[in-house]
Amino acid sequence: MLACSTVACTGDPDYYDAMTAGAMAAVGTLALLAVLSAPPAATAQPAKETRTMAPAAAGDEELRAALKAHVRALAVEIGERSVLRGDGLDRARAYVQGAFEKAGLKVGEQPYEYEGRRVANLIAELPGANSAAAPYIVGAHYDSVPGTPGADDNASGVAVMLELARRAVVRPPPVPLRFVAFTLEEPPTHATRHQGSRVFVERLVASGGTTRGAVILEMVGLTTPEQNYPFFLKWAGYPIAGNFIGVVGNRASRGFGERVIAGMRQNPALPLESLFVWFNGFVLYDTRLSDHAPFWDAGLPALMVTDTAYFRNRDYHGPGDRAETLDYGFMAELVRSLARALAALTEGGAPTRR
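Above: the chain's sequence. Below: its structure in token form.
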């Protein structure tokens, strides 16, 4: 996930053609609409501990161990996974592909070039999947910025995705489902035509394909006693403690988001807060900073599931984003919550792009 202000962010000029002058002029006023679209939050409770705020997960040591093993493989054994230097990005891709295949999924690459270097998204299908049906998508990016082990950003998201995939093989959900590991989400390719999720969405649309909804996992492993918020959300009634998972959507994704949230809330052990924003998040730019934004821009429903990134993680994009700082009980509860959400989804019709 890329850090920038709530109003502006640097990137490929081609990308910012989508932001009109009128939208820019209205940002200060329209950001208040993001607050008005937020659901009422539960009464804030003070944090009682710094980590492991999901004690019910302590009983599932196997899931916690599996999540920790994925994070350690990516953030400790491989470490930095940047396109700018080293072979960490390629090693991470190989690890994720191997983990998918070990779980029983069929994996294909979606390759392209960046500055003369071959990079690739990974697309994983469940055994016996109907490739003609419009699927739901679960995705996470596997790269990092230089200079960080990238445990929370985003080995945590990849780990949760891999364990969801493993569970989906054992107990397939009642809907078409595809898992995608995105490359090049981080700078210098964030918000450019080279961002892996943008390549994926552009090729999906060009081929006449669609998705019933995408769930993008972006930094999902950290809990803290205190939670920060964007300026315009500080007084919206959200919790004081950073012990919840956030679900962020645009207005066009609200129907899909409400169904996913209803399924996730079947697991009472994981607190959840949600926010649906207007104008594809341009009025609150922090809500655009991951791989869900290309789906929004293409008129496809998508959600970002997040621990709120740099509003919670003080080691964001730094050397302190290490495996030992994560809350694996919290991550285990997220796997359970998302598994329930996927199981609760009904097929419905493929959405019309807007």
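The helical segments are 21-36, 61-78, 88-103, 151-170, 196-206, 254-264, 293-297, 328-344.
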